[in-house]
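Give me a protein, keeping tokens residue-aligned:
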Amino acid sequence: MRIIIGLMLLALLGGCSSNRPQAERAASIYDLGAPPQRPMQAVLPRAALEVHLPIWFDEAPMRYRLHYHNAAKMQEYVSARWAAPPSQLLQQRLRLQLGLPAAQAAGEAACLIVLDIDEFSHSFASPTASSGQLLGEARLFDRSRRRLLGGFRFNVAQPAPTPDAVGGVQALSAATDRLALQLREWLSGPGAGATEACRAP
């Protein structure tokens, strides 16, 4: 009798353990979407890009805030995760949108664009109205002299098409593209303080 009970317990535990991978595989994995189909013209051909996020945003779980309930509490979607740290996803998409050189060529860059992201989340103003939010600061440095050339604050909020993880991803992807347009405009103007060394092909 004890042997039979023991075998039943082993079978039960084995069934539970085999179910865990299935539950884990059920989580959807997201990035920020496909890159531009055609290369973008580089606004600063000799600049490199670095993107920094606080550690609590730069993790696999996808975060959201309920501003109508408790804006200080960050929550995460149970069945949605990022394919890589968001800083890497943002850096890759923005680099392509700005036409900047690949990471392996960054060591030869004359200037450095640094983005410090303070907020990267799916934010709900109400149960049915939400947006992808990107908040932070962009700065341009002369890499050889480590001198700050210019900077600006940005706050991009892109409405989400649906109040769920899929809508949040689409909103954050569109917000990233809007930020890329703002960066291109800023880097092309005098406010960035870009030197000829940054612009030389």
